[in-house]
Amino acid sequence: MQSNMKYVIIGNSAAAIGAVQGIREYDKDGQIVIISNESYHTYSRPLISYWLEGKVTEEKMRYRNADFYEKNNIDTLFDTTVTSIDSDKKEIVIQNGNRISYDKLLVATGSRPFVPPMDGLDSVEKKFTFMSYDDAKALKAALFDGAKVLIIGAGLIGLKAAEAMQHMNVKMTVIDLADRILPSILDADASAIMQSYIENKGVKFILNTSVSKFSKNNAVLKTGESVDFDVLILAVGVRPNTSLISEAGGNVNRGIITDLTQMTTLRNVYAAGDCTESHDISSDTDKILALLPNAFMQGEVAGKNMAGKSFYYLNAIPMNAIGFFGLHIITAGSYEGEAYVEKDGENYKKLVIKDNKLTGYILMGDV
Amino acid sequence: MPINYFSQEFDVVRDPNRCIKCRACERQCANEVHFYDPETDSMRADSLTCVDCQRCVSICPTRALKIVKTDNTFRENHNWSQQIMTEVYRQAESGGVLLSSMGNPKDYPVYWDKILINASQVTNPSIDPLREPMETKVFLGQKPEEIKFNVDGSINTKITPQVELNMPIMFSAMSYGSISKNAHESLARAATELGTCYNTGEGGLHKDFYQYGANTIVQVASGRFGIFKDYLEAGAAIEIKMGQGAKPGIGGHLPGIKIREDVSKTRMIPMGTDAISPAPHHDIYSIEDLRQLVFSLKEATNYEKPIIVKIAAVHNVAAIASGIARSGADIIAIDGYRGGTGAAPTRIRDNVGIPIELALASVDQRLRDEGIRNNVSVVVAGSIRSAADCVKAIALGADAVYIGTAALLALGCHLCRSCHSGKCNWGIATQRPDLVKRLNPEIGYKRLVNLVKAWNHEIMEMMGGMGINSVEALRGNRLMLRGIGLNEKELSILGISHAGE
Amino acid sequence: MKKVYVNEDWCLGCHLCEYYCAFANSGETDMINAFKNNKAATPRITIEEGEKSADGSNVNFAVSCRHCDDPACVKGCITGALSIKDGVICIDETRCVGCYTCVLTCPYGCIVVDKSSGGKTITKCELCTKNSSGEPACVKGCPNKAIVFEERGAK
């Protein structure tokens, strides 16, 4: 039976592709339109650091095969920004004023790098965020032999950027407000192991502080210390792109609020991925889970529901598998509970048990 | 040990060019011969405890291993062989009775190998078993002297209960306790698929195997282990074990360490106690007492099951058989001196009893002479090693044969003769769960079925060659046999002529 | 679709399946050369050995990819290196960057780190569809028929 459904997806990354898979499982003919403000075939965001490092080529960065859109009958609109959603008329407005109608809409707008207001930031010439392929390209162009690089943020993105530059002849300094690196996923012990491992690779860390003032190629820290740099990378954090939903009248907290079928409070409008708030079953709280596997699975559930099915996404947990400079970490769940720890050099294993169940873990080294 | 009297018997030889250090040999040796040496990053072996069971050789993925007899030899002496001397050293050390497993390995004459089979030619056409009907079905039990008919043609003669077999080969008695449950399962399933029987031995019948009852012979031995009403009802026949070829005249002894929970439940004795079967049945001290037991069992099972009496082949076996044939038993099973065992005193296994070939011939002849051959069927055991041995046995007078050692070989046994240690690497003669696991009945029962089917086919080929188309026509047909290299006396006992005559 | 199933009743923990797998995926024709010249692949099936209980018994199990109908590994793969082809979950090693997300998400723990890449990529059972073995090598090599290759209908 021919389907006349029209699915419009705002976004072209993991959640969007997951949605395509979900839709096509049940609706082979309905029209799918993907709108992206970038110009590329869907690519894997985490791979931008590998690209910068030279480990993958642009071709290998593709998240799906080159013929993905063709094979799945998808119309693509790249280099296009959506400015608003009219959920009563079931239309979206794009930057040139054109309106595009939809039967079901998925907002998979992801997140954007958060640039906090910092004194003198405007005076810095070579400053970059590290989120998109374009960011990485711009950064690469700016780097030169012997450059001094200052990275604000010792979290996942900041350290991945550092790892990407490890084989280049640059001097790196990483600053963070927190008292330990990777504060979102590691405890103090594991963090210390990772920090000393990365320090041995030639990276300098200055923790427990932030920049009080920038002036061109210099930053003065709250401690009074002065750091010179040629290139600045801002990796302080990300903010979900929720404005489309909030401006259209949908409920938004820190992220877009959805029910367990990934539908927002606007009828026929779904949301998935980094732009949403999820219910973390390991800690029984709502939070932003900006992780690729979660984004994909949420997108898949949204897609299936958009195609008329009834699925729930019940398995959101924080989970990370990531390596820095060759030392691997796998973490998951929440760390509240009784801990069992094994430590052996660079190998660290922490298992957290609550109510007789394994609620979370941190594994480092020989995972 | 200040003076080491016992050098290793075998050397494990590993080809370093073929060894890939997969450690399978280390994991599969219950005697802990192989080990991985991390210092030299190589596999090594300490052959002292090697029994040459061939498990490591068979499982090595690159065939890097072989086991050879050690070339550490004492001075050559035909009278005092190295083996005899070592046995004296053992007894000087332990003060105990020497124990051995499996059948008599000594160099006594094997009469099967001195008997030849006839074939038809010219005057008597042979039969092609692939094109013409060939009957290998056998019924074991008392046969009537004559058949009386009614006026309408139906049979008036009452026939006593019989054991029906699709081929003249059954699996010999091996108790649960001496062999593993998986071995029993393989035997039971194979017997069921083949349409023949296996024997519980004196260890009772495990409750999981009652489903195969129609193909089971339940044994009543001197220890009376595991015997109760349901047990007797379960089988197709009941066998009273008076003796066993490997250890005539003595009883049996299963060490307490092998009496784990399952064995204990099946035998109905406490865990960890030694299971001792006394030498005589303590309620049978004369042939009249045997007759009494035979009829007690018949009464208990409503005369529905044939009764077998199993004896070891000893000097006056013919007279004993004659007595049994008059006692009401339906079948006599004779076990020759080459028969296998889980454990027996070495001297008794190697020196007591007589060859089954001679025993069979003399029993068959005596029963015919006394006109009572039809009172019983005769089954023989004690090293039937091939289909040729089966044919020769039937021609000498047997109705069917029991195979024990051959069946275990099909399951993987390599006759290392260390069953009494309980560390059978093939999962057969052990109760250790990690070793028993190695015998997967799915694989085991198929191999047994293959073996017996192959032998059955060979029997048909040999019978066809003789121009005989049924086992009945072969039975006792001594004219089909000739001896070779046998003296007058042997020929006369066997009742066959010499080749050429 | 036929898959590899393991019956823990018969697994002896002999590890031969690991060696046959490593040989089958090595591209060598001679098993001895494969191991002696260090060309053997990382086995995609691993034995989990249970603790021995008082009576000497233990349970062993060989773990390999279940080729799930709804694979968590494929969904979490950040590069799209894992995919489903005719029901078999396949890995394109050239796209793998060794992030280990699949190691994290697989509920059976059957994704292994490929030692021949220095730990930079992962590998997994592909039912011997990519090597010359034909029937899965672990099934052929198991001495006790603990590993079978059959159609069972369920996931």
Assign the CATH topology of the largest domain in chain C.
Alpha-Beta Plaits
Structural class, from helix and strand content of chain A? alpha/beta
**Tally of alpha and pi helices of chain A:** 8
Overall 3D geometry of chain C? globular
Which CATH top level class of the largest domain in chain C fits? Alpha Beta
Low-confidence region ranges of chain A: none
Strand order of the largest sheet of chain A: 3-2-1-7-19
CATH architecture of the largest domain in chain C: 2-Layer Sandwich
Rg of chain A, Å, rounded: 22 Å
Tell me roughly what share of residues is in helical segments of chain C. 10-25%
Structure write-up:
The complex is a heterotrimer of chains A (367), B (501) and C (155). Chain A is 20% helix and 33% strand. Chain A is built from eight helices and 26 strands. In chain A, the strands form seven sheets. Chain A has a five-stranded parallel sheet with strand order 3-2-1-7-19. Chain B is α/β, with parallel strands linked by helices. Chain B has two domains: 10-96, Alpha-Beta Plaits (2-Layer Sandwich), CATH 3.30.70.20; 138-498, TIM Barrel. Chain B is 30% helix and 15% strand. Chain B contains 16 helices and 21 strands. The longest helix of chain C has 9 residues, at 16-24. In chain C, the strands form four sheets. In chain C, strands 1-8 form a two-stranded antiparallel sheet. A two-stranded antiparallel ribbon of chain C has the order 2-3. Chain C has a two-stranded antiparallel sheet with strand order 4-5. Chain C is built from five helices and eight strands; from the N terminus they run E-H-H-E-E-H-E-E-H-E-E-H-E. Chain C has 155 residues and is an alpha+beta fold. In chain C, strand 6 (112-113) and strand 7 form a beta hairpin. Chains in contact: A-C, B-C.
